[in-house]
Amino acid sequence: MQFATFILAAVLSLGPTTPVSDTLDAAGIVVNGHVLGAPYSSEGTLRSSGSEQIERLGARRLEELLRTYAGVGVKDYGGIGGMKTVSIRDFSSHHTSVLYDGMALGDAASGQVDISRFSLENVGSVSVSIGASDDIFQWAKEALSAGTLRIESAVPDFSRSNTHLSVGLQGGSWLTFEPYLIFNQKLSSKWRMSAGSQFLYSRGDYTYTMPESGDALKRYRREGSGVFSFTPSLGFDGDLGAKGKFSFKANYHDSSRGLPGAVILYTQNPTEHLWERDLVCDFSYSKNFILREGGPAGKFKLSVGYSMNWDRYTDTDQKYIIPVDDRYLSQRWNIRGVCLFPQVGRFSFSLAQDLFIDHLDDNLNDCPFPTRETSYTCFSARYRSPKLVAVVSLAGVMAFEQLRGEIGSQAVPFRWRLSPSAFVCWRPAQFLRLRMSVRDGYRLPTFNDLYYSKIGTSDLRPERALQSSLGASFEYSAGGFRMTYDVDGYFNYVKDKIVASPSLFIWKMRNLGKVMMAGCDNVLTLSYRVAPWMNLSSALSYSYQWAVDVSNPSAKNYAHQIPYSPRHSGNANFSICTDWVDLSYTLCAVGRRYTMGENIPENAVGGYLDHGLTIGHTFHFAQIYSIRVWLDALNLANVNYEVIKSYPMPGRQLRGGVKFSF
Amino acid sequence: MKKKIFAFVFAAAALFAASCSRENVPQGPDVLNLPDMKLLVLNNGSFNKNNSSVSYYIQENRSLTSIGSLFKKTNGQGLGDTAQDLIQVGKNYWISVNVSKVIHVIAPDFKLVKTIKVVEAGVELSPRYMCVEGGYVYVTMYEGYLAKINAETFEYEVIPVGPNPDAVVAPQGQLYVAASGGLPAVLNDEVDVVDIASFSVEKHLKVNVNPSLLAVAPSGNSLYVYSFGNYAEKPAKVERVALSDGSVSDILEGLSGAPVSIAMGADGKLLVLMGGYAPDWSPLPGQVYAYDTKKEAMEGSLYTYPVANAYSLSADASKGYIFIGVSDYVNTGDVQVLDKAGKPLGHFSASGINPIKVMMVK
Fold first, then answer.
1. Which residue of A lies nearest to B232 if distances are taken between CA atoms?
2. Alpha helical stretches, state H, A434-578
């Protein structure tokens, strides 16, 4: 059956399809321009959503939106405060770059970004680009990732007012409150500023069942899940015309949250807590230029940034004679530049260069206080004709490391890799677009992989990831009807995968793993304008993922599906938008997965269906005031399904909000 | 080049076809022709996955039956998270489950008799190892306590002992507790001596850092202490403590490799599972060494039979069987069975992850 499904998907992937316009959301819906500043677009595989689609889907937090994207996985450790990471087609989350308003998030210590902090209230667009694309005007580091998640803040339309203010409050089950304020001011014809602040408080103590306890009906309460966070932001943007564009952004995030951990049979004793203080700020400048009078324009952009992640982790479990109180300060300085040279005939060339300096301090006894200087360089060439786009890129990374203390001599002072990629998109007809991409990517080992107390292994090699994809986009529209279909078949191979492996007494990080992945993502969207006051839309997606561990032919899990990777997953959304009310139903379906590498019934975690319903309406007053009122009902079936074993998700919940804007 | 591409595509297709089966159910136990063997295997499971289990093996009339997840099948509930120890107390079996903080008492038909929670000052304690003496079961609690539980009424009392205690043994009217201190930055290096009559700590014996497992010579004269060391410059050791004068000596002096576990075998032989790791940190195959507790002398390795991914060591002192739990922490473990000379008799699947202890059912 699974084989037949795959063949069907493969046949579909070769069948006649059609192009889509530049951007497709998770569900593949074309983003329109209700908010100025179009979402990121490219001819490559892209999932994106504008603010209107996000609002209609009823997604209030980033993970809720991303899990509806075909080919994008969210690891969710449950609850509001639980960690959530995003990954592309079964690559680990380390292979995903995250940009927030162009600022690079993440650090060299953990190498991944916890996306649980992102509310979608002030977000104008979200996009995930997968694999290589025709975009050669991008930062060097992003050109090397398996995928890039881009989050762009909403930019208001200043044509009718110089001041924009949004004040909102949303709340829901388990004493969850999230007030926010967003202020945008046009300072002059060239400058504008934005400021905002969001608070989140949640007790988060939802109930769940635990059939293994012998009483499948008994409900337990998830203790130790409370979270409080405060996230202010500030930004200035200037458009000086021929002199270029300036932008300064700063985001701060301060949170205190309980870490309830896994639910354990017969006991519940949450003793872990995490405090985070993260700052990211960035200054950027971009400008168009010409090399000769009347010639084509080139453009460049430059970014200088700093980010800091301060974490304090405590565990007061009495088995620790001295309670755990670990503190980490990870800092990153970066300077990045990319230049797209003026077009020569049908050829364009770009050169991107990123420099990062990362440093880690902590209070662990054996911390070597590592510092890493990393240089990413990417040279790209693109050919573009009316029907064909072809891109080749060669990227390279060099990383230098220094350590302090006794372990200093163990540092591998220099790591490097070359990474070629290619992308071709052919548009044989106006309604059809075919694309192919291949990339030899990699990720550097993180500081935790290399130096974490006793577990780290200092001589790890970069993890290599071959990524290839073949896809098509099809579009049809007539009258008020519009249909898009997007399909991608892919094959990925990860080598030297960095995994924790048991040594004699303790676990060590090693370059052991090999994973082979093949699959197919399908996205179908339909929309029909029934009447000027009513629009129907639907989005369906289905993904097949064959991701198997091929590390050790003699191991029992050889050629078994890797943990937490479902063979089958899909989403469905049906929306009715009218002048009086917007109604949307969303279904998220995930098939059976395995908690361990060996695919035996004892390790299976059942599939789940998550149904959601959202209803909302925006009242407009005097053309410049509006009030949006909405109500969401989530997980209607009230099933405490598990994305990660022993981390049950919340059951049925209600959430509502009101937002005033002028 | 074409050959390489073909081979690659073929390999991918073969892998794909192999994975298309609905479930890759593990094969049953291999040929193991031991008369009237009944075994219980305790599987640690994986941390925070609530998948500890007990498996049961019966070989009667050359027919071998295995029952995985015995506790769950019999009682309709899971064993818990990170089972640690299994002992027989009278007719019942006691199983300590560390992270779940319970001790299950099960009857000979494996039905649950009692689930014991030991609470001290409002804190649920995490049981580790157990021993039975004089109608009481003594259980180390990782928060730094030793519990004394009445085997009939299940009433208990606790006393504080050294940090993160592991094994406990009861020779000659005294209890010895390996106070590992395995969690703090500074590891402990003492074995606590507890007087059974007064149930109080009498003294401390200095040993290598991070003591964990204990075994007692049949003569009762010697205590053998397995310690992890500090995972760096202080290596793991097996030391002999002369109970007469408290003197300590390293019984592995001169041997290469590192000890993984110990167990008391037949004929007064202390069995030491030796392993080690390669420069790339991969674990080396384990081998069983025998130490004669009567002569206080190392005999050397038994029949040369290195076992990959050797994880635990159990032995039946009466019949002489040696059981090596095999695990890569990811897949269902196996149990290798040797006779007392180290000759391999066969192996079977443990039907669970990380087999920590094998016990012959009398």
1. A454
2. 447-451
